Please model this.
Amino acid sequence: MSKQIITSEEYVYDVQGLNLWYGSDQALNDINMKINKNEVTAIIGPSGCGKSTFIKTLNRMIENIPIVKTSGEILYHGKNIFDKSVRVEELRTTVGMVFQKPNPFPKSIFENVVYGPKIHGIKDKQVLMEICETSLKSAALWTEVKDRLHDNAYGLSGGQQQRLCIARCLAVQPDVILMDEPTSALDPIATAKIEELINRLKSEYTIAIVTHSMQQAGRISDKTAFFLMGELIEYDGTEIIFSNPRDKRTEDYITGRFG
Amino acid sequence: MMNYEIELTSKEADKAYKIDINKKRIDHRILLNNIAKKAFFSSMIFALIVLGLLLYRIGVQSIGWIDLQFLTGKLSISPEKAGIFGAIIGTVGLICVVIPVTLVIGVSTAIYLEEYATQGKISGFIKVNLSNLASVPSVIFGLLGLSLFGRFFNLGSSILAGGLTLSLLVLPIVVVSSQEAIKAVPGFLREASNGMGADKWTTIKKVVLPVALPGILTGAILAISRAIGETAPLVVLGIPTLIMRVPKSFMDDFTTLPIQIYYWTLDTVLTPEYANLAAATIVVLLVTLFLMNSVAIFIRNKYQRGF
Amino acid sequence: MEQKTNVRAIIKNNFAKKKRTTDKAMPIFFLVCASVSVITTIGIVLTLFTDAYKFFQKVPFSDFFSTNLAPLSPEPHFGILPLINGTLLTSLIAMAVAVPLGLTAAMYLSEFASDKVRRVLKPMMELLAGVPTIVYGFFAYSFVTPLLMKIIPTLEAKNALSPGIVMGIMILPLVTSLSEDAMKSVPEAMREGAYGLGSTKLEVTLKVVIPAAISGIMASFVLAISRAIGETMIVTIASGSSKNFTFDITQSMQTMTGYIVEFTSGDAGSGTTGYYSLYAVGLMLFLFTLVLNLIAQYISKKFREEY
Model:
């Protein structure tokens, strides 16, 4: 892939006036934000603030809950993802997702990584092997598993499983990776490895990450968005959010006065 | 020392409230409890003794009657020459019809109920219908088979007619066990697959069904063992009493192990040795069922996955 | 970074080519399969009603609901009351065996047995449920009847008592496991309240658990009766085919299911009144079990609302 010149103005997502309801309960209220290319955007806020809902809306996974209704637009590379002509399958292939709990398939490590390429029609064994290797290398898992690619993924530790899920996500060469509290089920050492990985991945991918931990947001993100009760309270450079927030509520949350 | 003191005070308390009169009652209540426990246990054991007796009796009656000639020989009027090869082939043929029909229809029904129409009127109706169908007496399925497959589709009393009739009979078992197996597939696996951009059917094919397969197979084996042991619907279909021929195609008349047992039992008044033949056939049937159930339990234990 | 295959471009290209017909067509296929069970029910109702209708065109209701049953005499009569009588008597005997044994065994398994004991006894109980009914029929006829004859010398070779008892053994696992499920689902807190007052296990079982689980237990009884009424092979073999209307359980009598089996394996040619009488009797049998199942569903639905 040829490297593109990245300007800070270039964004992949432009969310405009997004509202979301679970039945009659409004979970997201008039969200407007842009997510920049090749940056890590952290989304923080207390439980129930809508941050997970928001990130799952970005690849329309939220629609798996039947009672969900939305209004507003999410422009992905300028195209509204709610448009009828958009296939969710295609959207989710270019926008990968890593979940809260590691969720590998009960198959071999190899089969897990090549699941995406396979279901999207890549059958060549050699190509699959190559994809498997590069993906695992990118996810910093290759050296640990290269001798047991055909063992069941559930034999791996929790941290390794989560990196496997990241590798599985990378295998289809997505454009954006959404991460929904990817380290909340992991111990500190495994968490550190994932954070290091995220730092390396951002040169090639755009990453949006929901996190419970403000320290984590501070360590890994370029921009931080603070959500509270379904509203986007403040969105700015991470350093500004953490050192000099404009909104009182952001400051209260950052300094641990609630949440 | 402490204990002694506590006992003393509690004894004094007893006296104060005159509870020592009730001590006898407590003993009585505890005695009653122990008697009941033994009585309840013995009714449990009684059932098992009956089972043991049944197996023992049949075992004894079959001694000396099960040999290679019995298993591979054709049916004959004289007890010494009679074999159950035809019945074995008939039973196998029946299974060959029941397995594909119930698996395809049963698993598809379960997928529809669990993956596509989880709520709503249609699935609610199908579920109620299934539970009622499961408790329709098997002999009624025989009447349905007689009218529908036997007469309307003109399949007579062939293996195909019998197999289709039994398929409908055991269908609810396959559906319910497949539903359970599909329900047990954790949601996060579907989520993972969806998140990779897989469409619904791909997710079902590549993730849900492989994970649910052991459960589905276990249920299918149990359903087939039910089908193998069924007699009434086949008798109602009008399977002829004496079939000397071994069936060669699915359109041939046939007999099965239970039917063979039935006819031999009916004729024990005239030929007492038929009781031994019936017992020997029962042993073959029970061993088959036992093996199938063992396989089902093996599959369940080996592939049971804790997520 | 090493040169890698442009997976993104390949996938994009594949998406452009991909037809989405499978993902769209599969739910329709599944719905078609799911409708098989509904069609089966409709088929059962239709066959029973149409052929029973033909029967009632030839035979008046007054003859059908009479005690005169002589289908093969030159002047045939088709009174169903002897069959209903035989069905109910054998089923009542079965319940007399299964209710006390099943309930006490369930109490033992749910309240008294240790986990270890339960893990051994429960699967053995399930073995009883897995024995085909034809085997029970053989057992009733060739073992239980001769045994009972030693106690009751006037017992006929075919009678209602022996198959009734054996049928009780057959439905015992059903009563036990359903009642046990009902007792097990009584919340532990309810038991603890009674234990805290110094009750024995027996008292807790009788005064707390059973009252709380009563609807589940009742539902298990109703389902067991329904199963006994629909049971075919045991009564066909061991109860005989006497068409007398009698309450003497030492005599031979015929059940509804037994009548259907006897008549189809006989010479009832299609189109004769005898042939249509099968469906009239089948319809009665179907209605009996259907009503019982609806009652059981109603009771256990109420039971689920309690906690």
Summary: The interface with chain A takes residues 2, 4-8, 10-12, 14-15, 18 of chain C (CB under 8 Å). Chain C has twelve helices and two strands.
